[in-house]
Amino acid sequence: MTGTNPRTLLALASTAVALAAADTYVVVLALTDMMSGVGLGLDNLQRAAPIISGFLLGYIAVLPLIGRLADVISRSRILLGCLVVFVVGSGITALAVDLDILVAGRVVQGIGGGGLVPATLALVADLWPPGRRGLPLGMVGAVQELGSVLGPLLGAAVLAVADWRAIFWLNVVLGLLLFLAIALVTRGAPFETAAGGLLRNQGEDRPRPRVVTTALGVLTVGLLWLTLAAPPSLASDVYLGLPFVPFAGDSRLLTPIGAVTAALAVLLVVLTIRRWWPPLRESDLPGALLLGTVLGCIVLTFASADPESEVVGPLGYALLPVAGIAALGYVWRHRTAASPLVPRGTVRGRTGWALLVSLLVGVALVSVVADAPLFSRLTTSGTQTDAAMELVKFLVAVPVGALFGGWILRWVGDGLSAGVGLLLATGGLVVMSGWDRGSLTEVTSTITLALVGFGLGMALAPVNDAALADSPQHAHGTASSLVVVARMVGMVVGLALLTGVGLHRYYQAVEALPREQQTSGQALLDAALLQVHTVFVGAAGAALVGALVAFVFLGVRRREGSGSLARGFGVEE
């Protein structure tokens, strides 16, 4: 090969995916400090839920649009653009002094971080032909799950030497370094679409330097930082502080300098609209808004629910009808649009079955993530940290399984790799559903947790491989985004549903107790263990169904494939 080394590009893109994945859980240990930083006390824990669900909302809701954009313009532009969005979101989060700005920053972070995943998966489809994609896809799945493992550890390490804001400033630094590295390795590559056509720039064969808009963008971001930071040396000055005086209330945005920043942002949009509007129009923006509304309503409905008392969140009964109406609107749009968001023919062959398996993997994954630490707290006298360490045994095995599941695709089919992995996970979850109070003290519990993590990890690369192999090349970004969306929706909805069923059995068990035992700690503990066991049984059922679907529909024999290497990255065979 000549030109860009595909392994170097994949390594950089995968590192960016890991960084974004870490931010899903990086706030776990810092949440109370973040609440304090925006004026919330521990008695307002429910109000802090959007700090986490906001990231998920941004991550999931725009995935189909970004996946489609990755099919319309070059993957490198999508990677770089998403890194910029992630860095800006991290900066906003780090500077926030009120909850609204903090949540907005997390949403922007989620948009940028989520968009990195389909672009990187589509990049693999470009750089490697079908018969050789297994290991690279396994690497992407592995680093994504590894980022989830490292997130809380990274947060703890930063909190040991600095405050919570340093976590997000570290994101800014690492994101900028990755931006520069990817820009360097893709420099000089032709700007091509995934379908192979040259991307024109208002009739020009080669995009010219855009000094004015770049400088305006840097100035806008700089003023945004100044607006949100409101440095005391300036804001408290008699004269220099005038731009920071709020028009009303105490919002840092409703100030003269905030107004100037907003005006510059609008000017930047106007000056660049001819550049970004054509790709958005070709990507079916109305369809993206409708599908994003569906996904956003689902996330807010289930992610905001209190698992101890409800399956559907407080706004769910209003949001779910909105989701239904938006879903009908999207179906109509898909049938009538000349170029729909999800190109016709994308979900064909094994792709639809791969999405189903991905959703079921998400259900099983989140069940262990949520209830393994809970089981530890119920049956041992350990701390929350000890409970987290039990979860680490599972999470560390997931990326190992992802690499192995991709590696063996050299010799076996997608269905065999995913199916065997999900059967291993099923067996382990069945064992976990029978754990008693002393199970975590035995070595076999570690083996079981690792087995479940390894098995679920094995399914990550095969579902991506099957979806990419059977979807048309011009829709690889879209297909990749749908696989990720399916797994994330499985995690959000699966956790709410299985927890709801488990709680129902818990309350049934408590009501069946004699009145004198309903306040007994031992009897209530048995009922709580029944709840956890119910969740593990449900997860085992999801994994088993996923295994059967994989064996039957994804294929147990390896498919020989051929294909050209990437377009748009300066890579030639």
Features:
573 residues, mainly alpha, two-stranded antiparallel sheet, disordered C terminus
Ends distance: 5 Å
- Figure out the total of helices: 20
Q: Looking across the biggest beta sheet, what order are the strands in? A: 1-2
> Mind telling me the C-alpha Rg?
24 Å
The secondary-structure element order is EHHHHHHHHHHHHHHHHHHHHE
Query: How many E-type strands?
Result: 2
Helix content: over 70%
Stretches where pLDDT is under 50 for at least 5 consecutive residues are 190-208, 561-573
Shape designation: globular
Strand content: under 5%
Sheet of most strands:
2 strands, antiparallel
The computed structural class is mainly alpha
Mean pLDDT: 82
Q: Could you characterize the architecture of this molecule?
A:
This protein has 573 residues and is mainly alpha-helical. Helices cover 71% and strands 1% of the residues. It has 20 helices and 2 strands. It has helices at 6-25, 31-37, 49-61, 63-72, 75-95, 99-127, 134-161, 165-185, 211-229, 232-235, 256-282, 285-303, 316-336, 351-379, 384-407, 414-432, 443-458, 460-470, 476-512, 521-554, and strands spanning 2-3, 571-572. A two-stranded antiparallel sheet has the order 1-2. Helix 5 (75-95) packs antiparallel against helix 8 (165-185) and helix 5 packs parallel to helix 9 (211-229). It starts with a strand and ends with a strand. Residues 190-208 and 561-573 have low confidence and may be disordered.
